[in-house]
Amino acid sequence: KKLMSFLLMIIFICPIVQSNIVRAEDSSNILVAYFSCTGITERIAEHISRILGADTYKIEAAQPYTDEDLNYGDSSTRATQEQRDPTARPEISGSIPNIDKYDAIFIGYPIWWGQAPKIIYTFFESYDFSSKKIIPFCTSGSSGIGSSAANLHNLTNGAEWLEGRRFSGITSELEIKAWTDTIELPEPAEKPNTEI
Fold first, then answer.
1. How far lies 52's CA from each of 71, 110, 146, 185, in Å?
2. How far apart are CA 22 and CA 93, in angstroms?
3. Residue 90: left (phi > 0), alpha (psi -120 to 50), or beta?
4. Contact criterion met (CB below 8 Å) for 108 and 137
5. CA distance 72 to 159
6. Measuring CA to CA, which residue among 17, 104, 124, 16 is closest to residue 54?
7. How far is CA 45 from the centre of its chain?
8. Band of the pLDDT at 4, cuts 50, 70, 90?
């Protein structure tokens, strides 16, 4: 009986864990994908999702980062070593089941040593972003978005990159809305009329 309960739990929970997607609306053609270790980028992503009625996808490392991995004062830490290695591509846990449904993708990340974490490179090399609008946003106490977004452009063929924005941990939802209001986003596809 315990084995059967365990198997049922695996069947129903695994698909949810594997995709890491939270659906806002069936008709949403906007995705907010983000990587966040401390919760700051996640908070900004949740604001954007609420404002736009967008789906969210949390990029999670197959091997989660520990506080020790993120110790900026230690040059031997995992995050430091990854950022110094141009070929580093940390593995992502889960995937987006149907990225084709999204016309616009916001991508959020913290700034690590002036750049996007290497797991963001893994993300962009995992999908086809042709004909999609990409809107980057980052979180940092002081560093701007700088070259972090520009360095990601080369990983996507045929995507339209819009200007990104840096947010601090205390940015309000009103400030974020003022930014999203300036972005020209594609209209969602109309649902087919099934009425007779």
1. 34, 21, 25, 10
2. 15
3. beta
4. yes
5. 33
6. 104
7. 8
8. very low
Please name the residues in contact with 149: beta carbons below 8 A apart, sequence gap of 6 or more: 116, 136, 138, 161, 164
Nearest to 180 by CA among 50, 30, 52: 52
Write the single-letter amino acid at 135: I
Amino acid at 148: S
Q: How many helices (H) and strands (E) does the chain have?
A: 6, 9
Residue 167: enclosing H or E segment and its boundaries? strand 165-167
Q: Are 109 and 41 in contact (CB under 8 A)?
A: yes
131-184: pLDDT as tens digits: 999 999 999 987 778 888 889 998 998 999 999 999 998 999 999 999 999 999
Distance separating alpha carbons of residues 78 and 70, to the nearest angstrom? 7
DSSP class of residue 53?
A: T
Total residue count of the chain as it appears in this document: 196
* Mean pLDDT computed over every residue of the chain: 85
117 vs 81: CA distance, rounded Å: 11
